[in-house]
Amino acid sequence: MTKFLAVVKREYIQRVRAKMFIVSTILLPAVMSLFGIVPALIFSIETPPLRVAVVDQTGKMYAQLQRSLYNDSSDQDASSDTGNVPRGVPRRGFSAFVLEEVNPTGQSLDQIRADLDQRLSARTLDGYVILPPDFLATGKADFFNRNPGDIVSSRTLQGALNRATREQRMVEARVDDKTRQALFRPVQLEGMRVSAAGRERDAGGSFALVFGIGFVMYLAILMYGQIILGAVIEEKETRIAEILFSSVKPFTLMMGKLVGVSFVALTQLAIWGLAFSAFALYGVGVLASRGISARIPGVPFSHYIYFALFFLLGYFMYATIYALVGSMVTTAQEGGQLAMPIILILVISFYLFLPVSRSPDSPFSFWVSIIPFSAPVAMLVRIVTQTPPFWQIALSLLIGFGTVLLIMWAASRIYRVGMLMYGKRASIPEAIRWARQP
Amino acid sequence: MAANEITVKLDGVTKSFGDFTAVKDLSLSVRAGRVFGLLGPNGAGKTTTIRMIVNITAPDSGSISLFGQKIDAKLQDHIGYLPEERGLYRRMRVADQLRFFAELKNVRGKVIESKIDEWLARVKLSEWKNKRSMELSKGMQQKVQFITSVIHDPDLLILDEPFSGLDPINVELLKEVVLDLKRAGKTIIFSTHQMEVAEKICDDICLLNRSQKLFEGSLREIKSSFGRNSVAVRCDGGDGVLDDPALVSKVVRHADEAQALLAAGADAQTLLKRLIDSGAVIGKFEMVEPSLNDIFITKVTEAA
After folding, report:
1. Minimal CA–CA distance to A381: which of A395, A369, A363?
2. Is the Cβ of A6 closer than 8 Å to some Cβ of chain B?
């Protein structure tokens, strides 16, 4: 037991003290927040507004288009949300427009187009729209521009034109303002979560939580599995294994490694968890001070325990397989190759969170949350979205940890032989023979 | 410890890997307080034998006892083992490594620290105590590895090719340490394929070849049993005499002298007379003991 603790202590202290640990502890949250912040920053970069000329052959559409383009962001409801944007001011950010009316009377269409084309190539204009006389009936118009790749702008223009046309058609159908507003009043659909505890509001916070948890779980298993792989290969490559085996049983050594590294993983997860909570609390505070109420999705205490249990299940399952692989190969490169199928299984079981979170109580979800290799992510997703009956959770844990014990047994038998085999990579039949040796 | 106490005893030990028999029906006894040389060419079964003594692998049949007890995991703490294939954690500091290896041998408390300082001073590595092992030269790393095998003050020390790759100064240093340990009453098993090295420090030897024992006994005994039937000769001319199979069964020519093994029934006087008669100018003519290497080769040929 003291030898086991010595191995655990060495793994833990050496790893926590390493620069790698400190860097990755700081870097991961930094990278993740970067992914959140950078797109927002990019979208807030101001681009010069698009200068668009409108050749309105209907004679009715220009004013409507101007109104709908300057007033509104979304496709549907001009009535409610955007009242605070003053009229006539183009929206900021992407796809702002400066409109200009071209009066088609007195000139032929070809002549107008020739003029506008010239302005396009002289870059005093970015594009023009021709609304033919029968536009209100056909709804067909052309947008000529230099850059058809700018999908955002043409979509925005299409949306605005769509609303403008609808408005104009209303006017022509003599629908009065009141009726119009009544017809277009938007509906409100609010997500209500129904659970044993009763009904509560849930505005997508759960999904973010599920995704976050699944992702952290997947990342931690992958990362710490690789660390185990590296650690085992190091002991084999540097030939420390034989000295170690003359002092400590291979099984004790392997378990000491797995447990030591699991403590490192839990330490890092705890740091991230605390940092995240602090960040979330701070964020809620900031939002509250601006008069916006936000809520951290409530997480029952039992979920933390389940998270820890399923994390340990996933970690020990995959880390043990990594240890087994490490003892079979001779170099880190070979280890990487042989570990590819494991990573594949991990990736697949991570993406299972999508179908499982959509229908957590389907037979499919049930089975993937019982099969040990996908259970850690799948069962956790089910617990967070729609907590399954307790017996299912217990069954999943039971089968999972049973499998872990089985893998550990096989791995320790292969490990004890493999660690002393230098020279070439062991084949899988060879490894099976080792496992069967007394 | 009594002079004839047995530290390690193997009795009819056999070990196979698949179709390959690495050690076949091996029996041997290592006496306490002596340096026991486990000798043989590469692949003779030395490392497998040692791994069984250290309880890394179990024999298929036969028994192994240490200090009069059947080998088990607890007895491992009384053994120091320096394997032929050895290494250190590259990123770990020297003192941390030594502490870790001592802890794995159940050494606890402040003793460890004083032992670390003592041993580092002894192999002249004190100023490297807090360096990572990857900053050390290969020779220094080897000395640190040596310390890992002795830091827990073992009663039995097993060294597998301990001097390979070391420069002569460090070889002398470690040889001194090994002899000091022997004087302190420790039993040492010394495994090598370099017969010249073994000859200088072993009291007893066991010759292994192709998984089997060729000979076991004290170095003195075996040498005297072969008798002084070898002659070191340095002379100009007289080559034909040395090649006469009636007089010399085997001749090995070195840079400036030759070593001749006398044929059965021939004696040195006759050889000397024949050399003088042939007009050779003799610079050196000396009766010598056969080298361990010669003995080994003779034994292997006999066995074949």
Report:
1. A369
2. yes
CA distance B239 to B281: 11
Reduced to 3 states (helix: H, G, I; strand: E, B; else coil), residue B130 is coil
DSSP string, A354-370: HHHHHSTTSHHHHHHTT
Contact residues on chain A for B83, CB-CB shorter than 8 A: 239, 242-243, 246
Which pTM value belongs to this model? 0.74
Question: DSSP readout, A195-252?
Answer: ETTEEEE-SSHHHHHHHHHHHHHHHHHHHHHHHHHHHHHHHHHTT-HHHHHTTS-HHH
Q: How far apart are CA B131 and CA B133, in angstroms?
A: 6
Q: CA-to-CA distance for B259 and A218, rounded, in angstroms?
A: 72
DSSP assignment of A110-128: HHHHHHHHHHHHTTS-SEE
Contact A234/B89, CB-based, under 8 Å? yes
Q: Which residues of A14-45 are buried (b: 16+ CB within 10 A; e: fewer)?
A: bbeeeeebeeebeebeeebeeeeeeeeeeeee
Q: Does A238 touch chain B (CB under 8 A)?
A: yes
- Biggest CA-to-CA distance, chain A: 102
Q: Where are the beta strands (DSSP E) in chain B?
A: 6-17, 20-31, 35-39, 61-66, 69-70, 79-82, 156-160, 187-192, 204-209, 212-218, 230-236, 248-253, 258-262, 281-288
A150/A211 Cα distance (integer angstroms)? 32
Buried b (16+ CB within 10 A) or exposed e, A392-417: bbebbbeebbebbeebbebbbbbbbb
Are residues B104 and A14, on separate chains, in Cβ contact within 8 Å? no
Name the burial class of residue A118, with classes exposed (0-12), middle (13-18) and buried (19+) by CB atoms within 10 angstroms of its CB. exposed
Strands (E), A103-179: 127-131, 142-145
pLDDT (tens digit, 9 = 90+) per residue, A241-296? 899 999 999 999 999 999 999 999 989 888 888 887 777 777 777 777 776 666 65
Q: The tokens of B181 are what?
A: 């340990």
- Residue predicted with more confidence, B197 or B78: B78
Residues 69-88 in B contacting A (C-alpha not used; CB under 8 Å): 73, 76-77, 79, 81-83, 85-88
Q: Is residue B164 within 8 angstroms of chain A, CB to CB? A: no
| CA distance linking residue B108 with residue B115, whole number of Å | 11
- For A47-51, A321-325, A406-410, which range has the lowest pLDDT when averaged over its residues? A47-51
Best mutation target among B42, B48, B100, B152 (most A Cβ atoms within 10 Å) is: B100
Pairing relationship of beta strands B204-209 and B35-39 according to DSSP bridges: parallel
Cβ–Cβ under 8 Å, residues A50 and B127: no
